[in-house]
Structures
1.
Amino acid sequence: AQSGVPFACKAGACGTCATEVIAGRGHMDPQSARELCTLGSVGLDADKYRLPCLSDVHGDIVFGASARGAGAALPTREVVVESWRPLNLSVCEVRFFVEGGPFEFQPGQYVIMHVPNRQDGKIVRRSYSISTPPSERRHFEVCVRAVAGGHASNYVHRLRPGRKLQVEGPFGDFVLDESSKRDILMIATGTGISPIRSMLTHLLYFRSDRRVRLLFGLRNEADLFYTDLLRGLSAHYPSFEALITLSQPSNWTGHKGRVTDLIDRYVTAADSSNTDVYMCGSHGMIHDASAKLLALGFPAAALKHENFY
């Protein structure tokens, strides 16, 4: 197998990891509709290329060349750090100014940042969801959790105003369906709130009258962030309700337990016929939440998700 396959989104949306399969194609999972769509969008033959990030391998595989190559890149934009602020002890928010004119994206999409490797100077690409609405046409923000040993996340935490870097994008099909008039249920854990925040503030900007509920799960009090923002959105958006739960609280008077527990308490089978669902967070949370919602009668087509970790 080839080593060093480039990757970015790890969710089959950007096509960065598209790689030719020379032998052993039958030892990979069948191609999903998402994989076929992404390969088509980047002009690659689905009978020749695969997206390794979307498939488990069940035997020997011989990979050929990456479609984009380790050094290839999509068109990029230069951005400048305007501000940096901590949201809690492990999560920061960075605001960027986009050089070269308006930056168009859909609520829920992400960018791929070019992060220099301190050891060899080579660029690695890492994806971060945009947390602000598209109405901010020359700016966008991301919120990033620092991970022990995580080169890219710690690089973002060291950014300060005036620093310039390159970004690719926007990418992603985890986007708000603005043509729908249905109610909205959003479920997020940790920094999975990023694309959800973009959707929420976009809805508020256009004064949508759709009923929106957010179920937001964190571990403990030290992990709390965006609580003031959510209170403000609730005050200005009468149809919006945010429920925050902590799974390991110490002195918390609010909801307790996993975010999926809130589904049992506040989501019913009656909601299934008129509700779009957007979920972002860990793979385990999305798996468990989807199972609960499907059991309540929600159609699979109504469930959109983005895995963060």
2.
Amino acid sequence: MSSLSPVEKTADSAHAFVWNLRVYYEDTDAGGIVFYANYLKFFERARTEWLRKLGIEQRALTEQSGTFFIVLSTSVDYRAPARLDDSVQIVSRIQRLGKASVHFEQQAWANDKLLATGTIRVGCINPVGFKPVAIPAHVFAVLQPLVAAQGSSA
């Protein structure tokens, strides 16, 4: 077993955020493994906690700027199962930051094993017409330095 953490095993750890969770009974399916759709919930929670740590709270963002983020697309590849009581680490990175969207790369790790990888694209919208709008300047300024080295700013 390697002594490297999941973040250290992956490239560009300086731009990553790690969020830990425990697998509960409610997260599992009849086979006793994490239900596949729950990885999207885990990824969502990690992104939200990352933003919160950066001083960006979703509700306050909407109240102050009249904008919010929605998920535009997801893709998840499953590699190994997580099971009841496992400790799982979600590693999140920003691959690309556009004027109105953010592309995240996320990984789920447990017991030194990569469980799942996901790419999630979120967009900033106006809640009235659900039209794309520019990410508020203060949010963009916080996120831009976190774009992973392999990503690009657009």
3.
Amino acid sequence: MDSIEPSQFNVLVIEDNEHFRLLTRTVLQSAGIRAIREARDGVEALEALREEPADLVLLDWKMEPMDGLVFVSRVRRSPASPDPFVPVLMVSAYLDAELVREAYDAGVDACIAKPITAKGLLSRISDLMKHRRPFVRTETYFGPDRRRADLPFQGPERRVTPCEPIRPPARPLRWRS
């Protein structure tokens, strides 16, 4: 994949809080990103993705009528999904260990906790875009491989359910730091 200028990067921000959408937009613009679309919830976001693809989705957790986990589940698993491989970064104040596990089980690529800093958000985005994990499909999950190379499994069975590794399709655009 070729690197691009941030001005060509297309981001969809899904956040019900207007002030946090403005803060996120300001941080992204400070990095040179100009194509920033916004949605107030998962319903608006699905429509926005159908209208125009995104290179990255920044997503809040708690929203009505469709929250972040339902949105990610639909994007990853629905036959009508506009892009099941789109990178998704959850930005949420609700990120204790159990909730992070739920987010990854839904198909989120990465998480970052609110409150954010500009440096922290841009660093997390850069890391996510540079190091995309392969996707896997099982009977109950489709999304980025949740296993980490630095945490090797030591038990008798690596997986109870077999999975099929899938490389996300090459995207013409890539985050350039």
